[in-house]
Amino acid sequence: MLMQQQRNIKRTRRMFARTLASAKVPLLFHTSKVTPTQTLVRPFEALFSTHIVDEKPILVRDFIHSALYHPIHGYFSQRSRSVGVLQKSIKFNHLEGRKAYMRYLDDVYKKSDISWFTPVELFKPWYAHGIAEAIMRTANFSVPLKIYEIGGGSGICAKGIMDYIKLNAPDKVYNNMTYISVEISPSLAEIQRETVGHSHLSKFRVECRDAADRSGWGDVEHQPCWVIMLEVLDNLPHDLVYSENQVSPWMEVWVKRQHDRETLSELYKPLQDSLISRCVEIMDIDKTHTPQGGVMVKAKSILSKFYPKPRRCWLPTGCLKLLEVLHGVLPKMSLIASDFSYLPDVKIPGERAPLVSTKKDGSSTDYGSYLDAEGNADIFFPTDFWLLERIDHYCSGWLKLPKDHSSKQAKKRRTIMLDTSYFMEEFGLPSKTRTKDGYNPLLDDFKNTKFYLSVPTHNTQ
């Protein structure tokens, strides 16, 4: 039964993995040079729809974006009912314990022709209420409350947050608030309108567009606002860099179609893409963090001759692009993001590698190569929250890279990373998701998920 539940819940199929070490909640809410090398082709091959890769090679991030979001062939277009909607909230207090909860989920999935239920759906309305409480403790109510949600799924988060604010905030806060969902999927956008529109029609709207596209945002908004991203980072396109051994320079990975027109392979080129180069510099993946750097480089050089070890590193370039856009158009935004901090049993090689999984007839299959994705597979990545913080600070102007000689004044941000259990204990109502014997799936089962919160400060030093 445990394995069945792990196969049912999207991305939390390994939800019962070992608990990460945690710290107490701080009182945040109270008061290189690359040498060009010869282009290579490696035998990472897979059959794939020729609609994704044309005659010209494309970067890995473009391949992943098409595999997930292509309007016809993409995963989220073909699986319009991939995000499940529960007909009614789960009454956790009526369940005896873990086994009863698992049986309930198993029964729900068998009756539903969908791929997954998100945490905000499984724990509605309590999950959204916790997020709303975090916003209310920090929001500046001297200006109208404005919330953007990126990738709103079924709309249940928006509805839960607005319901909570209507019941618990001063009337003027709800009466003057605006909630905007930025959703790339037309089918999910329509579901959101149906979910939220009946209750909060005058406060809520959906903008069906790509949030990472700057042209869709219009003028810069200088008022404070909130941005919510739940399970968005894991589905953002990533790039891949490759190195032949421990000392060889990093190279960009491109995807090309072979001469048979059905087989795909990887193509390696010297670093030249600006987004990849910025991400590599932010990550600082080529720096030797030791006072004996020269000695270490020589040792690695000798080792690479006798024991060459290819290196593959996945870069969150989609996250970098999105945060660059958001900080540019919403300079006073506060951010709440939730996602998976690690994904056990990943078959695909490389640091921060994704899971590529498809579900058919109730059973899931994980692929060994991202090139196996044919528009019928979800591609999702773990979030490196330390790197997310660096990208956030870089995009806000606080983190300066060595090559950045601009005199633009930086705006410091206060950030915090919390395990989901700590976030919900601090801001939510854990008693509402507890079963009769004390088992609490919201606190106990999502050990590989975290919340990231980032708010602007007035400090500029």
Automatic annotation (TrEMBL):
It comes from the Eukaryota. One of its GO terms (molecular function) is protein-arginine omega-N symmetric methyltransferase activity. Keywords: Methyltransferase, Mitochondrion, Transferase. Its EC number is 2.1.1.320. One of its GO terms (biological process) is methylation. It catalyses: L-arginyl-[protein] + 2 S-adenosyl-L-methionine = N(omega),N(omega)'-dimethyl-L-arginyl-[protein] + 2 S-adenosyl-L-homocysteine + 2 H(+). The keyword Mitochondrion applies. One of its GO terms (cellular component) is mitochondrion. Its main location: mitochondrion. The keyword Methyltransferase applies. It is found in: Mitochondrion. InterPro entries: NDUFAF7, NDUFAF7_sf, SAM-dependent_MTases_sf. Gene3D superfamilies: 3.40.50.12710. PANTHER family: PROTEIN ARGININE METHYLTRANSFERASE NDUFAF7 HOMOLOG, MITOCHONDRIAL, PROTEIN ARGININE METHYLTRANSFERASE NDUFAF7, MITOCHONDRIAL. Belongs to the NDUFAF7 family. Arginine methyltransferase involved in the assembly or stability of mitochondrial NADH:ubiquinone oxidoreductase complex (complex I). This is Protein arginine methyltransferase NDUFAF7. It comes from Quillaja saponaria.
